[in-house]
Fold this protein.
Amino acid sequence: MKKNLGISLLLLLVCVVTALVNPNFLIPYNAENLVNWVSLYAIIGVAVTFVIITGGIDLSIGSVVGLVGTVLGWLLVEKGWPVPLALMATVALSASIGLVHGLLITKVKLQPFVVTLCGLLIYRGVARWLVHDGTLGFGTAYDGLRWFANGRIAIPFLGDYRFPAPLIILAVIAGLAAVFLNKTVWGRHLFALGRSEEAARYSGIRTDRLVILSYVLCSTVAGIGGILFALDVNTVQPASQGNFYELYAIAAAVLGGCSLRGGEGSVVGVLIGTALIRVLLNAINILGIATQLEFVVLGMVILMGAVADDYLRRNRSRRQLKRATPTG
Amino acid sequence: MKRRRFLLPLALPVLAASFLVQCGPSSNGGGGKKPRVAYIGNAIAPFWTIAEKGARKAAAEYGVDVEVRMPQNGATDQKRMVEELLARGVDGIAFSPADPKNQLDLMKTMAQQTHLITQDSDAPDSPRLCFVGMDNYEAGRLCGKLVKEAMPDGGSVMFFVGRAGQLNAKERRQGCVDELLGRPEGERHDDPPDAELKGEKYTVLGTRTDEVDFAKAKSNVQESITRHPDIGCLVGLFSYNTPKIYEAVKEANLFGKVKIVGFDEEEDTLRGIQEGNIYATVVQNPHQYGHESVRILAALAKGDKSVVPASKFVEVPAKAVKKGDVDIFWTELKKQVE
């Protein structure tokens, strides 16, 4: 938790400043929308955390979001599949994408960057080809299913504030991920192999299996995110759905303290990182700052986060070093 | 070295075969060969799917082959597509420039090598033979009139668009702004998209862009409602913007209080008009764009220059679709798409 202190304070600061400048920031309508978006983006953030911890990367997340959304729309609207079957098929599709990534990385020894970059191109192309670049709309026929992506649950003691449904899905996914990473042997092994794969292998960890598992988890969770994104916007345009979302996910993970060198990262950090990104984007809009500046602000904050993180870490290790070496 | 010698006998037949394939059609062509024309859009959207149907219908009617291309990344993809088409050889191109000012060189190259016409989005400075489409500024004026009808007592207006810099978006917006601020017809201003403009009855709050990210298109609307709780009317300038406005307003339970006016004929937009939750939409006639473009190119390819009017403008006017005429319009549209 200590590790995320800096970014948590930054998140708080942005919230307070925005709320002071425009009190509408805190009205239920905005708060609900904001939490809804944070939940959706945090799901793909959690997804990429699994592979970043192993020292890998997944650049295909945006395309997986696009492909899953397209396939879901195609199965439901064009092919008339029943909802549970279509959902299972899309989740299975995402899992198998992860499996292929994992196998190519561990058995064929390709670099994760290359494998997932090719994935980015391939899945986008397949999605566009599948529906001939047409836009798929869910119309009004799936409003029940869409509840999972934009539903609201009234809470008795919170007055007008309601609970966005995706937050529950995020809570389940993030909870499971945190338990997996911190409380299971596999999770600890994942961190170990991220630090040094060789050392992990020599100490008897089956690293290949774990790497494959991390990519399967990543794509599966990203696929669930893709389903929710598609349901939330209600129309899927295969050429643009999820474009660049992998970068939002990776940025959130890095802001949340994941090291791209591997071996470090926490689910809580990713949640706070995503929240910071979405709150910033929301603040820019409701404060009326030019939309064109969005990415400038976003880039600067991530950079500041990285610099601060690095500074704090070095400070900490210096202090530890001082404590370890007796003086005088 | 050894490996290379193995590769050579393998490569030669492949090369020869591809050479034959390339030469095939042109060597036995000449007399009976159909002219080949190209139809290039500026994005991937249902709008262009309808235009494609019109283009293909005209191709069948006028005895030409048509190649239809839709770019994913606007101007960048268009350049590649044009280069490929020119390399293969076409007898005419109907082009919708995504970035007219900066694609002048590309259009000059096209005009040198084949018949070039623009459609949907014009580039008056280019050597194009004519333009098929509507006047986006006038369509914007029409949109402004609809906003006034929807909100007769005045109020504030916000625009939503994928790319504010694209010419058709700019002109639509400007036409609407000029109409709302009560500027006389013929007086064309050039207001920056983000400026807040106050008129007597209507206030233009600004323009929000989303770079064609649907999730962002929706959150832009939500955030505008948060920032301006008393906002009166939301205007979608690109085809997908209006359905996203509809979504966000529906979730905010603001139907009736916040008016929606948009452009183009996406299904969700038409459904919204049927329900009475979207006031109106300004529609172009993409089917006609495709049809007219290919008709003109087919004639030009056969040497008939009389199809190009002196004004160099083949107008396919915009019209408003409101609750009263949405059913008839939709039935017509479905017929065109089939």
About this structure: Chain A has a mean pLDDT of 90. The CA atoms of residues 46 and 221 of chain A lie 8 Å apart. Chain A touches chain B at residues 22, 24-25, 27, 29-30, 33, 37, 40, 128, 133-135, 137, 139-140, 150, 229, 232-237, 239-241, 243-244, 281-282, 285-288, 290-292 (CB under 8 Å). Chain A has one domain: 2-323.
